[in-house]
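Please predict the structure of the following assembly.
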Amino acid sequence: MADEKYETHEYDMIVIGAGGAGLRAAIEASAQGVRTALICKSLLGKAHTVMAEGGIAAALGNVYPEDNWQVHFRDTMRGGKMLNNWRMAQLHAQEAPARVVELEAWGALFDRTKDGRILQRDFGGHRYARLAHVGDRTGLEMIRALQQHAVHKGIDVFMECTIVRLLKDGDRIAGAFGYWRDSGRFVVFTAKAVVLATGGIGKAWKINSNSWECTGDGVTLALDGGAELIDMECQQFHPTGMVWPPSVCGILVTEGVRGDGGTLKNALGERFMFRYIPEFFRAETAETEEEADRWYTDKKNNRRTPDLLPRDEVARAINAEVKAGRGSPHGGVFLDIASRRDPETIKRRLPSMYHQFKELADVDITKEMMEVGPTSHYMNGGVRVDADTAATCVPGLFAAGEVAGGLHGANRLGGNSLSDLVVFGRRAGLYAAEYVKSIPVSLTVDAGQFGAIARECLEPFERSGDENPYTVHRDLQECMQSLVGIIRNEGELKKALEELAVLRERRGRVRVDGNRQYNPGWHLAMDLHSLLMVAEAVARAALERKESRGAHTREDYPRMDATFGRVNMVVRRVGDAISVSQEPLPQMPDDLKRLFEERK
Amino acid sequence: MADVTVRLWRGDVTGGSFHEYHVALEEGMVVLDVLHRIQAIHANDLALRWNCKAGKCGSCSAEVNGHPRLTCMTRMNIFTPGETITVAPMKTFPIIKDLVTDVSFNFQVAKKIPAFQPRPPDAPDGSWRMMQEDIDRVQEFRKCIECFLCQNVCHVIRDHEGKKQHFAGPRFFVRLAELEMHPLDTGTRTGLVKEFAGIGLCNITKCCTEVCPEHIRITDNAIIPLKERVVDEHYDPVVWLLRKVLGKR
């Protein structure tokens, strides 16, 4: 391998990941006149953004003129149980409306209000109907608009290319090393800045809503490159994934079903969410079914239905109902829209849910209830970044979208992900471009290291080991599902760390067959490095946060603890080990604090 | 449940053949589940594309028993028990390996379609006013998940390699129709539709419409209206005469 020629591409900046955040970052950087390459693991337009369903949250005030950025900011912070980076939450709430309108300037077409403006729908944790949407295929609309705009701007896209290592010149980022999926050959990109936009880590759990791509590559590239992570313990379990048949278990059922009137029921037919209203949200949540039903049409005189509590609350409630023996036949609960809205409305508002259940589960959601249960969905935490610039602590390394942490705190509200992508994708592109322009000297990467990286990548072909990469991955998912799932405790987390150590050792014996050409077994063998790294980061951070907050629930510490509410769990790589330390949250200024003292 | 026998095409640009695999079935499985099981147990290096596994990303297109389909939305219970299932890559595109084909043709065509050109905003905040009934049709076109099954079955692309230079294919007629019918777009693309996209080569056999997993009425709602616009613009004798008299192009 030593004499292999390494195909090299020179750019000012590269963006890794071509979902919403990566596309928006590349568009911005390119508009700033910086030569930008966009690199993605799949074909363009297939990133996980395409699966987002319900909508993009932005206080446009089209449906409720009372809505504004302060209300959105307050909802986001409270949804995140105040663990959020306040400045990110502020920028996000302030800039989301302009980013949504911008998508229409690039060809997106959202559903309309009667007077022709962008329609907004109700979603969990949002005080007002706030999600701009296109039926239940909003992510597709967004990625297509961004993709088409990027293509017309002439941005170079490198598809089916996986980055395995960031390259540096001293402390500075200087490029990245990867491989082509089709040929298996290696490729080097030189660049003064790298924007990570690689999405999440859902593939570490058995029941998940994520695509094969969500293996934590960006998180691991960042850790390996010297950056820090925060809030990794707060992995989001979306309350409603499909549970039956087994082959579709985990596939997402949009919160839009509840936003449009659907309600959760147990095996006894009870709307059980009324029994799970936490103190934190009691003042703003309806106590009776009648009030909850009136709220859909009259928000001034009624409080929100508990079906639309934030996702962490709903996921825990479903988990508790199932444990109490009141679940559905296949271990979930029921989601009923059939008895609450007419078939035409359901098909118009939720076409892909109708299609998905009809085709995959033989269930007609206009006539029957759906069976749903929690599914690992979203990384609330991620790479620690500066709120304004999306810069990490490594010079030249930026991160945006799901891979970045801070905006969502301990729990993300539905709809805040798509807006996160475009608000902070743009910021990452803008400030990375500024950074590139501020570095007059050219950087060099030591080509001597390429051989060693390549050899490490190719090891699974050479080994005499007996482990199948798919089996190791499956066992990792079982471990995370059973020991680092929705409800955690110290004993299980420690057991998970022991099992992960064994899995790491097994990974060292993974052997793959065939050649380097489009070989998914080999690709998975390499992805196992990231999956094991993120699994350990989550387990260690979860062990350290001895309280329950947002998506992180400890049965041995079932309450929120104000001491832990003032700190992030910060994860770093020290040598081969992963360290966790508690570091204080940024302090919110007084004028924003006042938003939380007013009306409860 | 019973086992299923799958005949799966495996190979690369140098050639290949069908291999048989036996897979245990579980309730609710789709063809993609069967392929994943083959990959995990029998053939770790089996090349295939997939992402969402819910019919939303359009990555897992293949030909199942000769029919172009998304493998993630093809339930195993549609087949007769005991029936051998044949899975092959999309035939129209060059093979890379196993079920993975080189679909770069589509991305090259996408680059050549002129961008959306909106009229100036209607409101000071940069937004527009549009009625839902005016965008319903365009939203139908925007449901396209770019699975390229329509491109795969289009006989102009499938059987006439040489015509690909002058023919964009159904996916891009949908894209062009979307731009043409977008209430905000100010561009005119009928010349492009006729010349570069070659819509005249389409003889509306509706093969594309039949395979569309999003049920977009490609032929009726996109291709035929585009053909009519081309005729109105380029072949209408009255328009032709007016152009001559008024000197307009």
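Chain A has 17 helices and 22 strands. Chain A touches chain B through 69 residues (CB under 8 Å).
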